[in-house]
Amino acid sequence: MSYENLGKKLLDKYKVFEGNFESITYYWGGDYEGKTYREMIDKIICRVSESEIVGKLRWFLRTVFARFNANDLNSYEEVDDMINFLGYTKDKKAEKSHYIFRVSNVTCEKLGEKEENQNVTDNELSDKEKRLFDPNNKNALGRAKLMLRNKSEKYYPVKNVRFKLEILRRVSDNKYDFLVVGGTLLTLAYIGIGKAATRGYGRFYPDNVPSDSTYKDLIDKITKGEVKEAFKIYYDTLKEQKKLNKDNDWKKSKIPLAPLDNEIIQVLCKGNLDSVLSIIDRAVQKVSYKGNITDCGKDIHTWVFGLPRQGKLIVEPPKSLPAIKRKNILQNNLKSFENEVIEYLKKHINNGNVINDVRKQLDNIIGKELNSKKEAARGDEIIRNMSRVLNEVANQLPDDKRREFTNIFIKLVTGYITYKENLRRVSPIVLSPVRLENKEYRIAILPFLSAEDFKDLVNDPKYKLTFIGWHHSNKGLRLEREELSNMKNQLDVVSIINNYVTNELCNEINNLCNQQTKQANKQK
């Protein structure tokens, strides 16, 4: 036997899966620069990362073991030990993954390229697809406006991505094969890879997998768009193979749990890919909820969808300026800020000793920071230190004056002070386009939920602003919603999550779907 044949025989012995995949949504991958493709003489080159697939698989398996096997739901430590077959580094020890993922034969098309048998001109197709992601187009997707401003088309998502995936096992023990391969199939089909995966991008269905494959039943459910049934097959097989008999409750967990098959919501709304992505894009925007929700959650709901939950002020001048100029501008900003605060206190606190003490403390903070040997003083750190002093003063004011004072000390006092959102969290709600056999699309809601971690944030004084929307306007930042964060009896975390995941999100998706249907009928 030749060395080549011997090598192939050994390779086949440890190959646990081989199959081709095709994208059913746009893929927003990218290289180290963030470009989704590179142009060669006669083709374009796209990249699908093995590490991205393994990373998303690892995340999914964490949630699966947390749901069905974990005893400790307060941290990831236990579930990380359960999936060490994918490799780990712990206590200065490392172990290689038992599995090797190999991606090859990647092909793709950039937006605007005409597909075979399509009755549309190149110009019409190009205009339709590109305008969906053109940040200068008022009707573009909101996510595109955010991520693609001032970017060339090489940063746009790509379509019709195809690749071959092989999964090899380094060890002889095959006890994790179904867990890994089945998990990979579900991850690629419903959880996605690349940017904006939780909002419908980077979905891939298996294509041309041998009919005698071990995973035939699971693949059939995926390609038919039967989401719940696909997860049920995976869970049932996993429980049987691994003798798992737990069914942990997300309401008692600090880490996200994989959704049970009966918790997955498949919205009845149907449409083509572009319409479904547009609905998903709009369904999680706060503006969509302003007019039709009256409970206390309407102003604080966005944390459920993984959007910003806190904010901070940055008073730093642009870093492009020379260091000495930046320092002078920062000092002027802070002194202006201090003077405005002192003037307000003079009007509303009839106590010269308190005012003098406040000025002294603020001067010390500004002077200490600006004269430190740091490479550059950070304006937001200084504001944070100053705010501790001002919070003590605010507590001495009547409620109406306290709110007014709070608005003043976070006011945008010069053109160099800007607002910046901070503390983002990956969305626990995965919204996935699901392609049916007839090529129509539906939307599936996959809730990877937890509650105890959010309860901690509500009750921790450090995170008083957890549920507050800070909104930038010409008058500064409004904190009227601070009152809501103090209404603990109305902030029942579990009820809010249930309401927004099972009720309001579904209603909003259906409302948007009906609107699109009416508009389409008018245009006919």
From TrEMBL:
Residues 48-204 form the CRISPR type III-associated protein domain. InterPro entries: CRISPR-assoc_prot_TM1795, RAMP_III_fam. The keyword Calcium does not apply. The keyword Isomerase does not apply. Pfam families: RAMPs (PF03787). GO terms for biological process: defense response to virus. Keywords: Antiviral defense. NCBIfam families: cas_TM1795_cmr1 (TIGR01894). This is Type III-B CRISPR module RAMP protein Cmr1. It comes from Acidianus sulfidivorans JP7.
